[in-house]
Amino acid sequence: MAEQQPVFCDNSSNKSGHSVEKEEQIDSASLNSISEPIQSFNKIKKQESKSSITEQLDSKEWLQHEKHFFILSNSGKPVWTRYGDESKLSSLMGVVQAIISFFQDSDDTIKFIHAGQHKFVFLLKEPLYYVCVSKTGESDNQLRDQLSYLHSQILSVLTNTQLTKIFEQRVNFDLRRLLGGTEVFLDSLSNLFSNDHSFMLSALQCLRVNKSVRDQIGGILTEGKVKNSLYAIVVSKGRLVTLLRPRKHSLHPSDLHLLFNMLNGSKTFHSAEAWTPLCLPKFNSKGFLHAYICYIDEDTSIVVISTDKSNFFEIMGDLLMEGDQDKII
pTM of the full predicted structure? Predict the structure, then answer.
């Protein structure tokens, strides 16, 4: 593979770093610095913006969609919508927030509403509210699981600690400032719900290969294992080929789904080796791990997840410069 310059999707000016060992302390003055790792995704937003962004709230096209997802803050500010422009949905989000508050004032929690063919399913994860409006025939639990995945996708970018502190300090904070450029991953995830039943089953799809080939790939990764690395993963065509992990640190399927969605949701990672912070909520929702991502061909990537934010060149040298890419191919 031709030599490429790495893409650092990280905040190098933050000396404290993001790790699973330390919880990040956030104050109002540091809100802008939180968004720096996310700013690397701005080019993704420009390249792969939602095709449905021009749909209007009262348009025939918008109303004909069988399933809608909405994310809003507990103050009623829109964060993201699957179809259309969330900035045009302020009045609708205000109504949703009022309905939720009506039940909260009675010390109750709204979970769903059935109205004809439509199901309105709610998931309240303070400080964010998630709503699905569907007429697909899926059960309430299935739709709520999908909302949980959307919540995990946001945590993978911000961590639960950061998200909570932001809204503790600014109740009316517009979260779109920090999520700018990462909406493509929410879009991609919401599309997968209809096409990939492994989400419903909390399962993973593995690439079908001979056992001897899978064992050989695992052996190559074992030989190139780097200090402070937690996981080494080979992914091809959106499916798992092999996974190396410590005995006491398994990876939850939902965390792997988020990782695969990040790889498949954008072509940006195909252009160069990348080093990016990544929160795996089921592993630890309070801090970041760091992922080395390298595509060795159009559909196949190697991902090494480490606890050390300065581990990029060691991983690149020990794992890949010895010719492991060619061996796996």
Answer: 0.83
